[in-house]
Automatic annotation (TrEMBL):
InterPro entries: NikA-like. This is MobC family plasmid mobilization relaxosome protein. Pfam families: NikA-like (PF21983).
Length: 109
């Protein structure tokens, strides 16, 4: 459950530091307030840049499997060579594995 933010607090900061914080908050897809709060409370902010590429690949594979299933139900095809699908899933597995290593070792913005 999200807590209600009922307090304001002002502080002075250089323009350069503010721009850095804004850039990092934007990269983390967070508001500046949420980014500063999470950072100050020593919570890890993890950004996975490659995730959209991985999700896109998974959607394409899912789409292809759905089409193959439909063709199979229609009796258009009887057997399917899924070697390419297996290779794609293996590639995705290794990308996720690499991302996990990066998050474990760094984890920051």
């Amino acid at each position: 459950m999200k807590q209600v933010k009922d307090r304001n607090y002002a502080f002075r900061i250089t323009e350069k530091d503010l721009n850095t914080i804004k850039r990092k908050a934007n990269r983390a897809k967070m508001s500046v307030t949420d980014y500063i709060t999470e950072s100050a409370l020593e919570k890890k902010i993890i950004i996975i840049d490659a995730l959209p590429e991985i999700v896109s690949q998974l959607k394409k594979i899912g789409n292809n499997l759905n089409q193959l299933t439909m063709l199979s139900h229609q009796g258009v095809i009887n057997t399917v060579n899924l070697d390419e699908t297996e290779e794609s899933l293996t590639e995705i597995y290794w990308k996720i594995n690499e991302l996990t290593k990066v998050v474990d070792s760094d984890g920051g913005v």
